[in-house]
Amino acid sequence: MTAPLTPPPPPHEHSAQGSWQPPAAGPQAPGSQHAEYAGHGWYGQDGPGMKTELREAAVIAVAVALGGVLLGVLWWWLAPHVPLVGDVVEKSWVVYLKDTEGEQAIGVDGTFTLLGLCFGAVSALVVFLLRRRGGVPLVVGLALGGLLGSLLAWRVGVWLGPAEDVIAHAREVGRGVTFTAPLKLGAKGALLAWPLAALVLHLGLMALFGPRDPEPEFGAGPYPGPPTADGR
């Protein structure tokens, strides 16, 4: 006679002894770590946004361009005078340079160029001190404002200077009387002195003294790899 067989435990007996626990979470996948870093920014805080940068660039361009009024006044005040003389030849008025070997005309262009370089340096320094974070829109606004300021200064200087109609001026002062020629910018490349100086100096200041992006923060140990099938 054989002993009776002990029946196997019911299927739910093992689960009744204790509640089921989920497996321990393994190391995070690379995608989740990247998402966590992306939320705070790998390279520090995010910028103010493209709309804000464009708005600031527009304000800077207008403010820099308005400085052209001062540049035009200084050019009219500091530029050397070019002497002209009027005469009557065969009952027609002609105007010619009194000093044919003089360098006053070159001095007019040189004065505008030097003033443009100074204004470019000052505007670049002021913009850098006000907006140290830089950015492409800001640099474009600075260069565009310098170009517009040069054009405005050119027209203001011509407007403040002597009359552009030299024949009428010669008739007014009389035959053989010396008068001053109108301001004329012979070398149009001088208009680029302000924007180029502002652009070069601002980029140099940003490279030397601009803010630096912080190094990304990584974990103390190497990444252990994705979890295996058994959760290890």
UniProtKB/TrEMBL annotation:
<feature type="transmembrane region" description="Helical">
    <location>
        <begin position="137"/>
        <end position="156"/>
    </location>
</feature>
<feature type="region of interest" description="Disordered">
    <location>
        <begin position="1"/>
        <end position="38"/>
    </location>
</feature>
<protein>
    <submittedName>
        <fullName>AAA family ATPase</fullName>
    </submittedName>
</protein>
<keyword id="KW-1133">Transmembrane helix</keyword>
<feature type="compositionally biased region" description="Low complexity">
    <location>
        <begin position="16"/>
        <end position="33"/>
    </location>
</feature>
<feature type="compositionally biased region" description="Pro residues">
    <location>
        <begin position="1"/>
        <end position="10"/>
    </location>
</feature>
<feature type="transmembrane region" description="Helical">
    <location>
        <begin position="191"/>
        <end position="209"/>
    </location>
</feature>
<keyword id="KW-0812">Transmembrane</keyword>
<feature type="transmembrane region" description="Helical">
    <location>
        <begin position="57"/>
        <end position="78"/>
    </location>
</feature>
<keyword id="KW-0472">Membrane</keyword>
<feature type="transmembrane region" description="Helical">
    <location>
        <begin position="112"/>
        <end position="130"/>
    </location>
</feature>
